[in-house]
Queue: 3 jobs
Job 1
Amino acid sequence: CAPWKDNACCTANTSSEAHKDQSNLYNFNWNHCGVMPPKCKRHFIQDTCLYECSPNLGPWIDQADSSWRRERILHVPLCKEDCEEWWEDCKDYVTCKENWHKGWNWATGTNRCPWGSMCRPFSQVFPRPKDLCEKIWSNSYKYTTEHRGSGHCIQMWFDPAHGNPNVVVAKYYAWKKRSSSAGMENVTPETDKAVCALPWPVLVLLPLALVMVSKGAGGCRPRGWGSL
């Protein structure tokens, strides 16, 4: 998870576990319907790195009324290219479930397909990129038509040599959220390159700090895996 090495919510051990087929992070097996091709798996690794390590998801942290997690991310606006490349590289892989958050058979201690389910190509389970990005983690992500570099969508991966593009995106949505609450929907923040050098607003840091306290050194947000 190198893009976040200078400012991360995860440890080096979390980064290492994110790259394993059978990770201790969630005991989740990517190869539940056969071996996942490397070009597809890289997107899931990037997804895990973003989820575990990014300090820029504060505007989308939501309370969860569940026995297996208290907080989650909801409707993170992914860039169009990220969703479409994820779908394109995984469309020929097979899976038995549309929602990977819950409904698995955990009898063996790791996820297996539920009884009676069939392994089908991603392109059938998720006919469009939008279906994949929004349904696989129960609306953690939101498909958008915004492009990378627009300042209005989160990139799942980036070149740290050019800075973290998600900083300005989180600032934009945090400001938008605050402005909307104050009845100032038409007020928007500066989105030029200079913003990237500004310190984080308290609005974004506070929810992240609360989550880090609740989870400890393992990361920022407990994704969790349900069996129901």
Note: The first helix runs from residue 12 to 17.
Job 2
Amino acid sequence: SPLNPLFQAMESEISAAFDSGEPEDILSRAFKLTVTREDICTLQPLGWLNDRIMNFYMGLLVERSKKEGYPAVYAFNTFFYSKLSSTSHKGVKKWTKGVDIFEHDVILVPIHLRIHWTLLVVDLREKTIKYFDSLGQKGDHICKTVLKYLEEESREKRNIELTASEWTLHSMGTEEIPQQNNTNDCGVFVCKFADFISRDKPIIFTPEHMPYFRRKMVWEIIHQQLL
């Protein structure tokens, strides 16, 4: 059967985003971020996603969460954790100016570990902090660092003491979440972990979905709309 015209139009648009024009052409602008063709090209097969793509996609997830029927999502940007871990709560205190992160259901913390992307997820409803790594490495120390941050943020912003013992910290095991089968897809895994979690959906994708997810993300970022 012939491909439907909508799908063909999308495919040609995605190919054009990769192939025509100049690297510095602006293809999307939102969330105080500008995405160029050069940024979009990191979504080509085996490309390494950069901060702009990661942060823009997190912005799309937060935007969607404002709709009826979705958990309320807050996302830190990709520079948050490295700043927190190298300073302390003091160093990132201003990042949540005018925001009460505790009014949300889910907090997403995309993490850049030199050459690898991972994701930390705080579920305020369940009092859990979970670490998602598509290479199966443990992040227990990262969970602890974020719990300490939450304690200090709660004390300072709301004058409420969190009870650390009520919280469950857990690094997801390789049998619990899909694992990448190359050295390039960690950023896409993080975006899709965040996508499924921010819909309260079980994580059921596989490494085989990655080429499709990459192309889909190009369209979504250009149109500022999740499919």
Note: Strands lie at 26-30, 33-36, 73-75, 106-113, 116-123, 128-132, 168-171.
Job 3
Amino acid sequence: FHLLNIQRGNFKSTSTSIGVRSQLTTLASIMKTVDPKLHEHLENLDGGEYLFAFRMLMVLFRREFSFVDTMYLWELMWSMEYNPGLFSMLESDNGTSSANSKDENVLRQCGKFERKNLQVTKKDEIPLSVFIVASVLEAKNKRLLSEAKGLDDVVKILNDITGSLDAKKACRGALQIHEKYLNTVS
């Protein structure tokens, strides 16, 4: 249920924007930071808006991974998106003071990396799914750089991975990219 609430924003659109657009823009920023060569290549192919990643974010990798691996990813995304302070905030009468003290207790139980990331405000959070897309792109880096001569080639390369990716490997790559990105922009 929580994961579906997170995904709801992807389907909202107005006359000027598509809900998933902000994630695609964030993906472009991440790729520009962690792999400028691939980002430049994709921009030169008129793929700088990363619309080729639209399906991955909309259906959360259901096509790129096997069913079992997709379930693993969805569970992982839900658990990583979960904010431990949310429940205490909803339980408090005024929604502020007791939640803040409970959040401080949660932060004391975390390591340095987790504390830093839990303190990021909700609007600054980047969903794990965006980093998984970045991991998929990194895994296909050599092929994208050597074979992609246009956006059709990028889409074909990404369509060729249907059901063949390893979720645990993609997650490890996503977490490495996440850490590299946070260390670079912080």
Note: The chain has one domain: 18-82+109-185.
